[in-house]
Amino acid sequence: MKPRLDQLLAGYAEGDAISQQAVMMRDIFRRWGHPSDIFTEPARVSPALRGDSRPLAEFSGGAADLVFHHYGLASSAAEAFAASAARKILVYHNITPPEFFRGYDDVLAAGLATARAQVADLARSCTAVWAVSQFDATDLAGLGFEQARVFPLLIPAQAGAAPDPALLARLAAPALTTLLFVGRLAPNKRIEDLLEAYACYRRLNPYSRLFIVGSERSCPRYSLMLRLLARDLGAANVCFEGFATPAGLAAYYELADVFVSCSAHEGYGAPLVEAMRHGVPVIARDAGGTREALGGAGVMFADAQPVELAALLYRISHDFTLRKTVLAAQQYRLETLATRPVEAELSALLTGFVPPGP
């Protein structure tokens, strides 16, 4: 009997990058003949995925088994992982530095500070530690653990769900240039920078709109600040769309002319790859793991002023020769990702822990 290869998650949701990686790993492990399940607290499983994971309380790893924990915050899953008798592999997805949240949610900031202070000790108790980007591995080294190996974030090869036709019909406006951001509404995403740039962009192109797609539950005070700022800036057509289903997300990507991220801290940045996969030109701040996610594609900026970022957005949305060049580079990046030998990478990382391959 082959050993179990189970994964513990703090939450399990459709469209979530960590959840997607866990599913892809589980499917590979099962193809290799290993019993493999995803465990999480039932209250933290999205309705569409109920039945696809098992309750965390059912997890029981033996000494011959391997258990993986995708770590990005302190949780009951992390506690179960630490207490397990199984051999442990920590998959580090980065912990947002607490200073981003101070003043917006001091309780969360304190929790992030605790998680960052404890992660090195947790890592040292593991059989192995993987990071989903070199940026994350470097971050972990700065926290006191230097032996992490890089296993880049897994992202599904296909675009996924078909666009929601009702959403497409409701939001159809071919005369408007559509700018899009996708991600949690959290302070590290620096969405206020995007709003200020969009206010300048509207002076260049009044026939435009900005969709901000993502959950506002991460930091409600920050979300409220963004809405107040959008009102104060007086920029019309700023649309806070909230959380989107996979079909809804596909619709937003189909409507988008440019994807833009001003995030100042990204462990990797899965939406950047998702936007490229939907044929949308990407503009992103060169921060954290963004450079690794783009892999030479897209357009990156550093400390651009709002008017400078607005000018860049205008060029990408209106200079069709430049747009074609950007899209060609993004397509090349996608082709590179499509040929990634994921199973060989996993097999190499697990050498000595489990029998090789299927």
Please characterize this protein's 3D structure.
With 358 residues, the chain is of the alpha/beta class. The protein has helices spanning 17-31, 76-83, 106-124, 134-142, 165-171, 191-204, 220-233, 246-255, 270-277, 290-294, 306-318, 320-338, 342-349, and strands at 5-8, 38-40, 54-55, 66-71, 87-92, 128-131, 149-150, 177-182, 208-213, 238-242, 258-261, 282-285, 299-301. A 7-stranded parallel beta sheet has the order 3-2-1-4-5-6-7, sandwiched between helices. The protein has a 6-stranded parallel beta sheet with strand order 10-9-8-11-12-13, with helices on both faces. α11 (306-318) crosses α12 (320-338). It is globular and about 65 Å long.
Class per helix and strand makeup: alpha/beta
Q: Report the count of strand segments.
A: 13
CATH topology of the largest domain: Rossmann fold
State the CATH class of the largest domain.
Alpha Beta
Give the radius of gyration.
21 Å
Query: How does the major sheet shape up?
Result: 7 strands, parallel
Q: What value does the average pLDDT take?
A: 93
Number of helical stretches of at least 4 residues? 13
> For the largest beta sheet, what order do the strands appear in spatially?
3-2-1-4-5-6-7
